[in-house]
Amino acid sequence: MGSSSSxxxxxxxxxxxxxxxxxxLFSRHCNSCDIKELLCSxxxxxxxxxxxxxxxxxxxxxxxxxxPANSPNSLYKVVPLSTAQPGDKEDLVENVLSxxxxxxxxxxxIKELKTEVINRLAVLEKRVELEGLKVVEIEKxxxxxxxxxxxxxxxxxxxxxxxCKSTLLDDGRxxxxxxxxxxxxxxxxxxxxxxxxxxxxxxxxxxxxNEMLSCLEYMYHDLGLVKEFNMNPIxxxxxxxxxxxxxxxxxxxNFRHCFCVSQMMYGMIHxxxxxxxxxxxxxxxxxxxxxxHDLDHPGYNNTYQINARTELAVRYNDISPLENHHCAVAFQxxxxxxxxxxxxxxxxAFKKIRQGIITLILATDMARHGEILETFKLNVDHxxxxxxxxxxxxxxxxxxxxxxxxxxxxxxxxxxxxxCLLEEYFMQSDRxxxxxxxxxxxxxxxxxxxxxAQIGFIKFVLIPMFExxxxxxxxxxxxxxxxxxxxxxxxxxxxxxxxxxxx
Length: 503
What we know:
mainly alpha
């Protein structure tokens, strides 16, 4: 396993600048734009010039933090990209445009419009002058910050600027939605959609983000949560927008996965008739925890965070760093007045809601799977819905079931999720190999296949957990447990076929 000092030392490349060698150092944490500016400066080229980097044999070299290093005997050369001169075709186009402009001038009062535009430009120019100094100061601060990060990285050789670290907690602007409710189109859900939403067979692949937001909004209204917590409907819309925009575009842990888990929770509430067994506060905790459970997931799991000593792992002392981060982002969003769906809840009641949501999100760490399931098994044979400890254990098992419930769905809905998950696994294992970190066999693209990835997980994790829940809710057997058994059989057949082919 490589040490952080060797993995994150400054990179060195050598340039041919007008026949002389120029040595250039840059941090691994620079982005492509930073490196391009450095190359321009080293080659006496204006900083905003478009450039390309060429190797000794004329091959183009990618300008990014992972670009291959060279030696003083194999110099790179920075080449500015020249702008093509107008040719005959451009001249012809200009002539045509001139004639068209003349025709429009006759038809419309272009001169009057031009005067008005000039006057408005003059006003804008004055505003730009007033704001110009502020912009300069901001850019100066950004440059100073970049330099400070580079110096810290160089001195300590640590993962100060790991791409997996959170920036949301330090920059509240990213938590606020980029768009507001007026541009959030309203969708009227058909009765067919409303009925399908209540079933685990719901096909989550046919919906755009705005449609999924409308479905989530409907769930909160349908369960009576908006009325129970006296939510402002506009605040609910704005909160959902902020949630959606704070899920990253990972192959698996993205907003569609968030919707998938939330819809399964809504379906289980209806299937198990929990409206009559749990309080509205508990239903609100279940739904909100499902919506928030993977906020700002970076696409690299807890094992990577801990082995790579990322900022999240350091911040949370290697204890469920991702799940702690999801909680923190969730409550940072709720701390914004415009997104606080619990603004009208009594402080004591909110304290209970907050603790419940935190408990459920932390329960999604698979490292705690055995402990959580064993606690529920102790209660399930004599379960009492008036016993708070029993209800708490049920809620933790429910969010776990929903979080890993893809194989409950029809095969045509479930199988694409396996592809997404393997893509994210391979992305992590490739990175771990490049950084000299341990690689889990079930994530290694050279060792895992779909059947080998799914069989053990379905047999030893999913089926035992859902069969335990089935003891309390026998009605889930046909619609949730049987599909898991069918999926296990399907992948075992595929495994046998793979083995036969390999033999």
